[in-house]
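Re-running the complex after MR caught last week's input typo. The corrected sequence lines follow. Everything else is unchanged.
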Amino acid sequence: MPLDIRTYHDLTERDRSGLPEQIGAQRRRVAERLAGVHRVVGVMSGKGGVGKSYATAGLARALARRGQRVGVLDADLNGPTVARLLGAADGRLVVEADAVVPASGADGVRLVSMAQLLQAGQPLVFRGPAAETHVWREALEAAALREFLADVAWGMLDLLFVDLPPGIQRLRELADLLPAPPAVLAVTIPTPESEDAVRRALVAARDCGAPCLGVVENMTGGPFAGDAGSTLAREFGVPLLAHIPWHPGPDTWDALAARL
Amino acid sequence: MKFLCVECDQQMTFEERQLPGDGTLAAAFRCPRCGRVVAMLTNPMETQLVASLGVKIGGTTLPPEPLEMVRGMVATGRADAFVEAGPRAGVPGPAWSPEAVERLARVPGFVRGMVKKIYAEYAKDRGIGEITPAIMDRARGELGLEDM
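Corrected-run output:
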């Protein structure tokens, strides 16, 4: 005869662990820390190597030159590059009472990146059991993202860019952690292959409620053939914000910043 | 996660958490009616998964340190990535006796960084120059730490 066992929610005695409350407190900590941030924008692409970090750095600097208070959270934990692009890869992070102070990069852009925390040339390796790392590694990366949001004194910002890695998982984690889904900026190169990958990412963004500010086509006018930027913008009903040439100057980024 | 004493149809209450070593997390629960105690033991992978959520079974006893998980769990991190501000700025860290280092090495990796920081700050605040197992015991008692 089977045992008569009640469900989890039937057991309503006070639970000292309070795990749901602990998770709730984590979410509140994120919300409180970002209370002074006017807008969070995820810079995304389904494809690697299209220049997300390059575009993030160029755009962040241009906005800062226009007088905006801008931060960059490098969420590409395994391939962090934006710190170097903003000239802040080697600085130490200052720990205050309950928060870490972001580094100040080029043009005063505030920045936190895993690149600032890792030994030179070393990959991101977590302590833990060597077997079955696929089971827990993603959860640890999500926890690192949560801490970069909740434990960094971002202060008052007009805009916080989150430089996302290729793929869509980190965007979903970001949308879960924030009080409301972030806006996204999609970066592509002209090719059909990039178009296909970015399309999938834009659908994922739409599915998680993240509004798209527009598409940026990078590396236009070089060896890559195609019109991915225009096609995607038309398909998703969003503006094509810029064609970034192979060797963009400050004017290119200034023009893009003016359109945001 | 909750535990039910099936015989009494009673929700069991959290009793104690231990980190006995070998990557095991042990959480004991007692039935408030019959007094029976059961312990849940997680394997290292499960322990890691719990740690990755940033929660503590049995509840939290200390406020979280900034970037607690990143500072404690990244094996390839720079030793000098962070610099303290405020009253502890510029105060040199305490030395660790070989016995204390050995004992610290037995703490599971996912909390080792945080545990080391707690002991170091305890020593700094009290002007203690070297952390020994005796100092660790004293800190545990005074700070109410479990199995650190």
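None of the earlier attempt is carried over here. The first helix of chain B runs from residue 44 to 52. The beta strands of chain B are 4-5, 10-11, 13-21, 24-30, 37-42, 82-84, 95-96, 130-131.
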